[in-house]
Please model this.
Amino acid sequence: MSSPPAVDGSRDPIFACSGEMAERCARFDWASTPLGEPSTWPASMRAVVGMVLRSRFPMTVTWGDEFVMVYNDGYIPTLGAKHPGALGSSLPHQFAEIWDEIGPRQRAVLAGGESESDEDVPFVLERGSGPEETFYTFCWSHVSLDGQAPGPGGVLTVLTERTGEVVGARRLALLNALAMRTAESTDPDEALERTMHVLAEAGDDLVHGSYYSAGATGRLTRGPGFDTTTRDDSEQARDGARRLVETCWTTGEMTEERWDSGYGVALPVRASGRRVGVLFLGLHPLRPLDGAHRQWLGLVGDQVSQVVGTAASRADEQARVEALAQLDAAKSEFLSTVSHELRTPLTLLLGPLDDALADAEPTLSSVQVASMHQSAHRLLRLVNGLLDAAQRDVEPRPARIEPVAVSALTRDLVLPFEVAALRGGLTLTTTVDEVGVLSLDAARWESIVINLTANAVKYTPSGWVEVELDADGEHLRFVVRDSGIGISQADQSRIFDRFQRIETDTSVSVEGTGLGLAVVAESVRALGGTIEVDSAPGEGSVFTVRLPRLVAAPSEETEQRSTIAAEVLARDVTAPDAGEGSAEAMPDDGRPRVLVVDDNEGIRGRVAGVLADLGSTVTARDGIEALEILTDLQVDLVVTDMTMPRLNGLGLISRLRADPQHSGVPVIALSARAGTDAATSALAAGADDYVTKPFTSEELLARCRSTLELTRLRTEHAATAARAAMLAEFSHDLQTPMSVVMSALEMLSLPGVDDDARADAVVRARDRMVVLDRLVRQFLDGSRIAAGLPLLAVTASVDLHDLVRRALLDQRGVVVDPEESGPVRVLCDPRRTEQILRTLAVRARDGGDGPVGVRWTTSAPGADGVDVEVYAAGSRQPSQAPAQHNDLDLLVSGAAAAAQGGTLSLGSTPQHDTRFVLRLTEAD
Ligand code: ADP
Model:
C-alpha cells in the first residue's frame, strides 16, 4: 500500500483524514450513486463514515436498501481484487458468492434489528484467485437514520479475518493427531494405514493422498492411500501425480503442480536419514498454496517420515527382543538339560572314589577304573558339547546320525551303573543282544540309556534292576525294569515334562532335577521312536523304548567310539613339525593362527602337532624369535613355555601386554608341574591360562580351544557374548578339575604304577570331583532360576561355627572373628549355606583389598535371626545388591538364601567396604 497522501484542507470534513480510502472517498463521484453528494447525507451517516475512515480496524458501512459500501483501509484485504471497485458499489453485488448466507441477516439489522455478531465464521470468498475458504469474526450494527432524510439507515460492519488462526490450529491438530495415533505402531505397514486414516480426516485441507514405498531396487510401489471425494481423476491429474512422485523421488525435494482440479504435492519420506518413499497429496481446492501451507506440508512429510522410521525401528527392535527372548528360553532349557546330564556321570565317578578313600590304602579295581573312565569320558563329551554350543551360540546341536555299534556302546554306558548298583546292594543285570551297527544319533542314544538306567537305580532302594537290549527285524527295543518304588497311574502322565518330580515320602530324599525323563522323551522323539511306562506304586517300573532299526555299514569311527581303551591309548601324538620360525608358512584360511614358543624341539613339535587340529601353527624357539615373528604376523593365540634362553615366557608375556598391537592376544603358559609359582607369575603377568607339563593332547587342545573361544566371545556383541561367555566359562571351569580327574584315571589304568602314586591319584581325583560336583550344582541352580523356579532346600539344625569352618576350610586368609561370634545353632540347608559362604568369601576377597573376615550376631531379643557377615576392608568395585548382580554365583546364593527362609544383602560400612550379610534362622 502506498503511503497515505497529505490531507487536503478543502475536502469535506468527514474525509479530512489520512489513508488511502479517505483520499479515494474525497475524490469519488458520489453523485453517481444512490447516496448523492456527501453534503446531503444524513448526519448519522456522515458521522459513521467519518468514524469508519478514521478507524484502524477493518470496517465498512453500507447505506440504504442497496447497501452502498464505504470502507476503510483495514477492509481492503477482505475485498482482494474487488478493491477499489467496491467503493460506492452495492454489497450484495460485491459479495454475491455469500449473499444468500448473509443477506437476510444484513437486512434484519438494516431494518433496526439487534446487532449480530459471530466468531470464526467460514465464508468461501472470491478475492481474485478463485474461491477461497476464509474465516471471520464480525459484528453488524444498525445505524439509524436521524430524520434529516428519509430512508432505511445503514449497517456498520466491524470484522477481523481469522483464516490464519483457524486454519493454523486445524493444521496443528492434524500434526498432533498424526503423532498421537501412530505412536504405538510397531509395524510400518500398520503405521502407514493409520497415517492415511488421520490424513483422511483432514478433508478441509487434503482431498486425497497415497504413499509410494521404494523397494530394495528403488522401484516405487503404491501403498495405502485415502480419498475424501468422489472425484474422477482427469488424465491430466493422473499423469501429473505420477510425474510428481517420480520427480520427488529423484530430487528428494517437495514437488508441486497445479491442475484444473487443484494442487498436487509430492513429499519425500525418509527413515534413518535414507529416502524410503514418497507421500503424494491432493490439496483442497479452496486452500491456496501459500508459504504457510507449504511449510505445513513440509511438516506433514516430516511427521510421516517420523512415523515410518519409528515404526520400522520398533519393528526391528521387537524382532531383536523376540529373537533374544527365544535365544534365552532355548538357552536356559538347553543349559538345564546339559547340567542335569552332567550330574549322572559325576555321581558315578564319585562313588568308587569315595569307597576307595574309605580304605586305609585306597585302590580301585580294574572294573571300577573302566567304569570311571566311561563316566569321565561321557563328562568330557558333555563339556565339549557345551563348548560347542557356546561357540555356535544356539541351543541343541543338530542331529548327528552316524553308524553306531549300539550293543557295545550300551554295555559301556551301563557298566558304571553296575558298579554303582553293587555298592548300593542292588542287583543289576544287563542282557544286551548283538543288534548290529545301526544309523543313530549316538548322543541321543546315550541320554536314553543313561537316564533310564540312572532312574531305575535311583528309585530302587533295594531289589533288582534289569537292562535289556534286543531287536526284531524293524525295531530296536530297550527295556529298563526295576523293583523300585513305582509310579502311580496319575503321575505317569506328567513325569515326562520338564522339571516335573513326584514328591512322595520315599522319593523326596532322592535328589533329582525332573529333567531326566524329559530328555529321554525328547531323544526318543528325535530318533523317531516311542516310549512306554508300565508301573504301579510299590511294584516297580518298566520303561520300554522302541526305535526304528536302521542298519548301517560299519566304519572306523564306530569301532573307535565303542572302545574306551582305544580312546585312552590313542592319546599321544607324534607331531609333525609345522612352519618352524617363519611367518610365510601361515595360510590365511580363516582358522585360528597359533604361535608356539618353546626351546625344546620335541615339545615344540608335539604342541604344534596337537594344535594343528585347531588351526594353523607357527613356532619360535624363544621370546625374541616370537616377537620377531609377531612384527609382521597377527596371531590368535600364543602358547609359550616359561623357561627359555634370551627372552623367557614371563618376559614375552609382559612385552606382548605392553604392545598395543598384541596386548589383546590370548596367551597360554606351559609350566612345569613342580613349579606352580611359575604358573602363578605367568597369570599375574597377563597369561590367560596355563597348562602344566606333562599334559595330554586332549587337555592342551581343550584349554587352547576354550581360551580362543573366550577371546572370541569377548570381542563379540556384548549382550549375546555375556550369556555365551557364561556358558564357555562354565565349561572352562569344569575343564580344569576334569583334566585332573582324567590324568589321575589315566595313571590308574597304567601298569607298573606304585601304590602310593595310586593312592595319591585317587585323592586328587576325589578332591576335583567334589569341585566339579559343586560347579554343576551351582549351574543347575542357575538354570532353575532362569526357568523361574524356586530352589529347593533341606534344612537341619547345625552348629554355625562348625558349618563356617567346614565351608571356609579351603579359603585361605579368611578370619573368623571369635570374640563377637558366640556358639549358636541355626536352621539351614548345610550344603547350600556352605556354598553361599564360600561364594561370599571369594566375592569379598575380590571386592575388597584387605583380609576377609566372618562373624555373626544374633539379632535383637525376640527375633530369631542370626546375621552372618562376610566382609573385607576397602572396595574395588562399586557395590551392587546381590539380587541385581548378573553373576551366576551371587544370583544362586541369593535364591539359595531365600529357599531356606533367609536373606542375603549387601551393605557397606565405613570400616568394611565390602560386606555381605546372610540372615539365617536360629534353631531352638
Ligand atoms: P528326576 O531328576 O527327578 O529323577 P526324571 O525326569 O528323571 O527326574 O523323573 C521324573 C520323576 O519320575 C521322578 O521324580 C520320579 O518321581 C519318577 N521316576 C522316574 N523314573 C522312575 C523309576 N524308575 N521308578 C520310580 N519313579 C521314577
User: Anything to note?
Assistant: The pocket of adenosine-5'-diphosphate is lined by residues 451, 455-456, 459, 482, 484-487, 495, 500-502, 507, 512-518, 541 (CB under 6 Å). The first strand starts at residue 59 and ends at 63.
